[in-house]
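Researcher: We're teaching a course module on how sequence relates to structure. For the next exercise, students receive a sequence and then see the predicted structure as tokens, so they can try to spot secondary structure elements on their own. Here is the exercise chain.
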Amino acid sequence: MNLAKFKVGLVQMSCETGLDENLHKALRLIGQAAQQGAEIVCLQELFRSQYFCQKQDTAAFDLAEPIPGPSTLALGEAARQHEVVVVGSLFERRDAGVYHNTAVVLDADGSLLGTYRKMHIPDDPLYFEKYYFTPGDQGYRCFDTRFGRIGVLVCWDQWYPEGARLTALQGAKLLVYPTAIGWHPAEKAQYGAAQHDAWRTIQRAHAIANGVYVAAVNRVGHEGPPAGGLEFWGGSFVSDPFGTILEEASHDREEIVVAECDLTHLETVRRNWPFLRDRRIDSYGPIVNRLIDPK
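Model: And here is the predicted structure for the students to work with:
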């Protein structure tokens, strides 16, 4: 059986205050990832700006843009120029008062294959996303790109096995998670290692449980007040279907991570760990309940 291989590239970068500066940096790094052999290039969550959700500010809605729009035009041109698939994460203005945290997928010819609107929206200290984002209403989606069938989810979606499962069941062989996650500096010494380990572990579990490759691309650097704010922990990585980390970035530097996804290996793992075959789909009805109360 001759199954395909493709290389995924993750662009881990710090973000400046200027929108155009971040866009130009991302476009340059897409080109560098392509030069390193990447065929599917993924950008981090909300790469065009610093992470504005640290506070509630109506002026931040001015950062939003339509899709298609200026960013999709620029990303599409980069995809066409370098003949790579590009996954970008944007602040979408759908209409007045309706905004989404949206991932776009541009095929290697520059065409916009579609969008995925973030389904799970957090509301935590310095992550006030419910103020800005309407939850996605498209469901979980897959995209047939030139190099393979991929599923895209976004950041907080990482913690939910249901999203990973429903995307994998549609035939995705790679799950991509554009991400903006970091430490509260005051908590880092006590909780930092455990928080990062939990984030890494849950996504490796998605890879194992679904027999897919998983790629998480996170931003890096400190944003916000020097004495507070968030220290984004980087650590972008690619896991194979066995949960093995193929490539992983540092916590404190801009980097491009490139890893090969081999669908023959995926086939082998699924033959030996046939989790999808052995699912008891007749028994999962109660999963749609918020909780199952005692009778």
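Model: If you want an answer key for the exercise: The longest helix spans residues 185-210. The mean pLDDT is 97.
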